[in-house]
Design a protein that fits this description.
700 residues; alpha/beta; Purple Acid Phosphatase, chain A, domain 2; Recoverin, domain 1; six-stranded mixed beta sheet; five-stranded mixed beta sheet; 18 strands; 9% strand; calcium ion binding; calcium; vision
Length: 700
Amino acid sequence: AFKAAVLIQQWYRRYVARLEMRRRCTWRIFQSIEYACEQDQIKLHNFFSYLMDHFTPSSSKDRDFISRMFVSGESFKEAELEKYCDYESVEVPDSYTGPHLSFPLLPDHATALLEAFKQKQQLHARYVLNLLHETRKHLKQLPNISHVSTCYSEEVTVCGDLHGQLDDLFLIFYKNGLPSPSKSYVFNGDFVDRGKQSLEILIVLFTFLLIYPKEVHLNRGNHEDHMVNLRYGFCAGLIAMSRVHGKKILKMIQNVFCWLPLATLIDQKVLIIHGGISDTTDLDMLEKIQRNKFISILRGKKRKESNRNVEIREINGESKVEADPAGNEAAPSLSLEPRPAQAPSMANRLEFSRWVRQTVQEQIEWCRRLADISDSEEEELTYSSVVSLTDLDGPCWTRQEEWKQILDILWSDPMPQEGCRVNTVRGGGCYFGPDVTGKILEKYNLQFLIRSHECKQEGYEFCHNRKVLTIFSASNYYEIGSNRGAYVKLGPDLVPHFVQYQANKTAHTLTMTQRQGFTVALISRVEESAFRALREKLFAHTSALISAFKAYDKDNTGRIMLSNWATAVESVLHLGLPWRMLRPQLVRSTADGMLEYKSWLNDLAMEQRSQERIQSSLLEVIYRNRSNLETIFRIIDRDHSGLISFEEFHQTWKLFSSHMNIELTDDGINDLVRSIDFNKDGNIDFNEFLEAFRLVKQSQ
């Protein structure tokens, strides 16, 4: 009996080990594909940024188009934004049966909202715009780094990425309780994208923020970014949800996002940031940056950066006058400080009063330019602008330096190795090692860091000798059963206590024995989903794979060794996956250890063609470029109408033709756009856009 028990135990351990190995391989596939998609997004954005930097507008219309191409929110001044998003002009019909809001908000409003969203009801656009208006007003008064104390509440709960998964937020509130004066929350960014209920999550969080402004704190994540939202579904979902007022809501949300604080400090000992840090992270600089200038962190420095650099050099006394390339002396853009004219005699009170007003106005104008505040936008002083104006004697940073500070804390990831290097996997931010963590903690007298940004199988993970804690709150992120969500609670002792969960209604009703079988079924389901996504990725690179395989097939036999197959696949996809381990799931084993790669690729094509009746070579291109095409379409569609107007297409094509040195007249562009407009309705929808791309590829 004892030997039998040991044998059963060995079998069971082997079985569990195999399940864990399958789970880890599946995880690697999902994560590699996700990060490759983020790389594509940044590459695409860099391409458009390059076009913009090297495009010379020929008219005021071109300049206006270029200035608004990426971040339409910047084209609205304060008063214009208020007028455009005026909630009072939106009427609530008598037939509306959803929740109602009145300001100032009360806890009952939050409870009613939660119940309404559980019943799949929507909040009317008037109330959404009103809520965004009040939220923006509140956020503008907050510092860049929020400060939380455990002295005033029993504990502080920190939640990670939610990504539009409202069921996870409901589960957190069910397990941990709603925000209240005795229960503080920090939500660490990435509230939107990917999930289907991003707007509902924003509404709930903003409502609690206004009800409990001292107990609820929101950090900005890398997905609170207009350019990222264009690719990952939030923009499209919002417009589809509200055709009439969706554009106004989106415009307001873009502006609200740029006012979100960048970090939170608990008891001056625990720093909470969305992504991570770098070897140049400077909390003092982060405190003083005008965060609202960066509507999209992906944008990097603007074209006016060169002018800003001239100003900084002059402030530092390095240069007073710049000469242009032609040798002509240019006027100084900003003197060190305005020198007032000599004061008139006190005897002439009117003249003296006029001199005082002029001098004060010059000083204010100099301060505004130094702090990079637009003089065309008359708005109240915010916390960050006050900090900037009161610290004029301190160091002056370029916009590029400020941008990198924010990019690093929103996009970076920890690594086990020492040092700090560029995050080539995501395409943005950096990888920081335990030595970088130690230096930052020591410099600012911190105990540890809490960050999010990375999906973890158990919902949380420690690294860097337990000095960096990753918390991720979106369960079932890749697929049902792929991961748990978690949140962490900190009391006055700052010892973290974790709560894990999985928002899956089916699993809650199962017995323990049933759950074992359910877990195995889930792993199989998640595994199949991962390999399906990987096969799509392989199929999308068929042409490149054939070229890579032929490098190992010198005699053109159509066969290569399986070991060479793994090397060739990695050289094309660059996903960093253990291809030899994954090979049995992707390639049929052969007796002689050789692979007929053409028949294998044909099998991949057949699998994809069974889903879409399109010629194989065209389908490959569509699979490889669909996300980029959708993003390009949304960039061109500046008003988020779901349609590209002839004017929008005309301006964009001028940008492309300028970059590619293609001579094309206005009549030629008009003929082109009319040929793409298949149904002749005067606009181009995404299907027409995709069909034109397909026809061009087919003709090639």
